[in-house]
Amino acid sequence: MFYLCGMEKTKFEQKIADYVAREGLLDGSGDVLVTLSGGADSVALLLVLRTLGYPCRACHCNFHLRGEESVRDEAFVRRLTSRLGVECSFVDFDVDGYRTAHGCSVEMACRELRYEWFEQLRVRYRCRAIAVAHHADDCIETFFLNLLRGTGISGIVGIKPRNGLVVRPLLCVRRADIEDYLSAVGESFVVDSTNLQSDYKRNKIRNIVMPTLLREFPGADQAILDTLANLRGDLAVFRAAVGERRARLCRTEGNLLYVDLDGLLRSEHPATLLHEFLHPYGFTSSQLDDMLRDGLPGALFEANGYVAERSRGEIIVAPDVADDAEYAFSLDDVSALPIKLDCAVVERTADFRFDGGAAVAYFDEKILDAKLTLRHWRQGDRFQPFGMKGWKKLSDYFSDNKFSIIQKRKTWLLCEEDKILWIVGHRAAGHYAVGGETKKVVVLSLYE
User: What is the pTM of this model?
Assistant: First the structure.
């Protein structure tokens, strides 16, 4: 690291320099993209990083949510970056339009819009990182927000110094320290008047909860920060332990996750481990609790495009493919199907042999003129298995062959109108069967 010539580091700057080095936040080459609102935090971030010798470029979002204040903030950032000789990118966002299109809150719309834009700038200018101005007080507020929502150890430790290429060099300093620093160096900033209002949850914690807590328990804020620092160490140990148990109790096959339910139930705390294993899939706490309850074999749980089934001694998680999509096609073109099928037409010669594999089905050539569809199982489906005179409920076939619910939902059916011709990869029906009069055989093969 190097510093601008002729400038002696203040204690504030040295603290941030040590924190950045300790956390490895700004390693590598290229500019640092500083997100600059014009408030005290982001102005201090830009000044400190430049003083510490990091090449910086800035960016400013105008959400047009605060009338003249939004215009004022952009004008301030333009003057500041011009005076400092810092390249700055500007953007105007239509927050209401984004909310209408995506059905989200103002806060979520602003977050998604700005971080998507930040990443676009980072890639365009080949920046080493995106620096945002969260500080220690933000960490305390996030601790309370997550605590009130209900969270585990990973949620209660507060804001992380790094999230991918988004870094937070100011997490080691307080809001009061930032304002003192700006006063000492004679730098101005703008104030967002909405931060003084208590309309949002974070503002209520900042303006109501924290002042009340500090009045009744002086020093509580520093005690919380000390606790969060301790918890970060605990989290590292916890994650290592979870990783060891994940390796022992979980296995993956393709896009399926299998959790050893019997082993999980013998562990120290099944609910905690299951939460850690399945957290990325978005299942709720009540769903996770139900997965562990006795008396629910075969129960199915859905979340965010995934399904989980409590099966025989296992919890199976898979992408949710249970939909009503129906693909119409002809056998002269199977390229657009969601599964890989090969279609061949061969002569029925004296030495022709059936290989008997479940991944291959044989039909009389008359099937070539059929209007075929590919779909999933529906309640009430029946089929006539090859070699049998009667009909069989597809649900009974699944039960007889010990299909899990997820397997049922994943299985494809080759159909002609309401007739099932092939449970793909498992069993053919009697329709279009190869017989004594068959001269050409249509061979359908399922392959990976």
Answer: 0.67
